[in-house]
Specification:
heterodimer; A: mainly alpha; two-stranded antiparallel sheet; 66% helix; globular; B: mainly alpha; two-stranded antiparallel ribbon; 26 helices; 70% helix
Amino acid sequence: MILFLIQLTLVPLLSPLLVGVIRSMKARMQSRIGASMFQPYLDLLKLFRKDEIISRDASWISLAGPYIVFIISVLVPLGVPLLTVSAPTLSFPGLAAPLTLAPLGDFIVIVYLMALGAFFLALLGMDAGGGFGGFGASREMMVAALTEGGLFFALLSAALAGGSMTTFVIAGRVSELPLISYTPLIIGFSAFFIALLAENKRFPVDNPATHLELTMIHEALLLEYSGKRLALLEWAGANNLFIFIALGANLFFPWGIAAGESVAPAALLIALIALSGKALIALGAIAFIESVIAKLRIFRVPDLLFTSFVLGMIAVGIIIA
Amino acid sequence: MADFLISSSGVFVLGALFLIGALGPLFFFVTRLGSESFAGQWSYALSILGSLLGLGIAGAVIFLGQGIAFDAGAITAFVPFSLRVDALSAFFLGVISLIALAASLYAIVYQEHFRGRYSLGMLGGVYSIFVASMMFVVMANHALTFLFFWEVMSLSSYLLVVYEHREKANRRAGLLYLIMMHISMAFILLAFLLAFSAAGSMNFDVWRANLSSVATPLTAALILSAALTGLGIKAGMVPLHIWLPEAHPAAPSHVSALMSGVMIKTAIFMLVRFFFDFLPGSSLWWGIVIIAFGVASSILGVLYALSEHDIKRLLAFHSVENIGIILLGIGSAIVFSASGAPGFAPIALAAALFHTVNHAIFKALLFLGAGSVVVATGTRNMEEYGGLLKVLPYTGAFFLVGSLAIAAFPPLNGFASEWLTFQVLFAGLASPITSVKLVFLFAIAGLALTGGLAAAAFVKAFGITFLARSRAHNKTACVHEAPPLMLVSMGMLATLAVAFGTFAIPISRALVGIAASVGHTTAHLSFPTGKLIASPVNIAGMVPLATVFLAAILVAALAVGLVFWATRRNKVVYGATWSCGTPITPRTEITATSFSRSLMVIFKGMLRPTKQVSVAYHDEVSRYSVKSSAISVGFFDPYRAHFYTPIENALIFIASRVKRIQGGNVNVYVVYVFATVLALLTFATLI
């Protein structure tokens, strides 16, 4: 139960910080001072207190969609090993044995739940009937459709290396592998990292800081939203970044994660420190990429995504060969 | 009650219900009794009764583990009429009954759409025959019985395809359908005749008993190739699918739901019979071939669907895609049983069967939803839709459920069977043969890509149709929500789509039992479904959706509650969509064609889009001021260009040569007759 609460709250509580850290890292690399890394929390707070405007053309999809997208971004972390390799359990009064949430850790469930979030995000973009939202939705689905394969095969390579489809088991088994067997995992991770950049709308696929009509993908979808619904969508975006970083850190390099069934505070603390260290490296890499390279032309993006797809297939191929 | 359901009299009552349903309109027409609507309603009411009985029979057979057998040979030796309901037949009978129940319910009101333009009684009558023929096709136990019902099924569905016969496009679609169905029939007949020559009987029981032992490897290969070709046409397998996107949209929507949802599955049924019942233990390469067709059908099907802007054609192409996914399961099952992992074969087959029923549910739901949209707007062109969620709130919600199910999102049923198919393909990666491993690797890649593209296609289908503002040119059309009975029918299917996902564990376990009973049946027709459910290899017992569903509800309640409470004082204002200050018109919105344009460009190597720009000028000489310009985007059709047209040309060439023997001179004809008799006599003496 305690594990359930950790898994449920850790991601939404810390995810705005990740976004803040990337922004301040970028600011340093670009010789700016930049805002405090806690600024995203203040932004969310501000948005939650504001009134909102909804388009007259919008349907109930606009009303419910931001909640759905946010709920998915809180649901998925329940299946991602954050600090320990034991799956969270839920106990209800009247239930004989506690219910394990390990099925949420099935990697196909994770991939398709993330895709469900993208599906609703695209619908949200189209709902108001503006030109930007429609084209944003078209591009979003183009990127999402082509990213899914790379993401799928990257996670499959980890799953085959760990001999299980469940992320918790994968994390436990991969951490026991000898270093030599990490070769396919590193190839799988490169596929995963490209998928991470694409799914989180980062360079070189999308510019998270732009509002230039011709280039934006993700921001175009959020254009019609304000107040609490915008806050939920921004927060969901930050959660997704955390999910991807945690998946990358704990499936491909699960060092430091608390092993076994125990939830000893010391082990969890070590795991948190290890996760933070790995997250800092990943965030640094994202900030570095965003500072040194330009965004790709939209029709060059598929080349990158197919590269991810092929890398993932190679990783799986090496493992099964 | 149960005794009646598993007796041959139950099956005859089933047939009688549909026959009365079909003859009713004829009787009313001749005697001029009742209104035209009543004639149709009569048929649909009896179809509903028949479907309920069909569900009862299917359920009784599966849960009691006791089949039904009937052979008219015991009464008269001349009529080859033989029926047999085992677990596999019962499963398909159940699926057909389920979809027919929803479609008949829907049709009671939907038929009014055609009132005054076409005969409602005829629609209902032919519809009854169509449903009944599908049910009897899966119960047939003799080649001639099967062919009889198969032909009735093709002809009655042809009549339904050309029901709106005053439209030329429908007549053309119907003709193509009729031709393709008879080519299909010819191949199936060939397979049956080859099997007959090997086994010496047309009875399926005899084939089951000794066809695999008496047929030489060459005969077996010929039988399977002919069967795969003939059934592949019916199933809509690429490249034999060309009739499907023409015929399915042309039929009335409740018929489209049946054709796409269950009629093409009768081919899947027979494919399973051929590969697992009549000729079990076929070579590994058959499995590989079927997987290859499956991958091609699923990827190409979804790409063609993405490029469509006719809502019913879009759905028809998705049937090609889903048949591909079903074929992946069947192919894997053949590979497993041929490569020494027979424990996995029932699971692979169960994945295929699970996707069969799931596809039937959500595709019927989507076609019925599309039917409501077409009735409301008067067009199938998605470019004229938009904003329909506000006028068709329930239809829209049900269509959304169908879209989420077909795009395989958890916790809906499409995900459950795709998950199972993925597990089966993962098991294939463990094959000892490297080339087989590679085939499975590419199959996984194909299925993953298909999943992503299907999501894009249904963002388009739902978004363009139901969201934003209307793009209609004809604003006078009276757009209204569908009547309650049609909504009940769609609501039933939507509930099933959720239930078959959430309760996937018991369902997939039962399906493993059914799959394992194929080819196991003893003379007494009892099969150990109950025992097999607890089989040791139990991937099917792990479909994770119940937990996902539960956790989602919990998290949703928490998050929504918190946000509501935290922001309870905030106000909501309604305003205009922001458009840089320009006026908001339908032209501001994205269209179906431009939505999929970027994916079309990426896959242009496969899709070969064609673009034609036509510009009219005010002054043709100087060409400065443009009066109007138009752009039309189409797709090159490689199947017609490289496959069907050459065959057609060859046929015409041969026919033009052969017609020379028709001299018109009686003496020449007498010589022909004489030569034929001589040749036959020589042939007979040689044998």
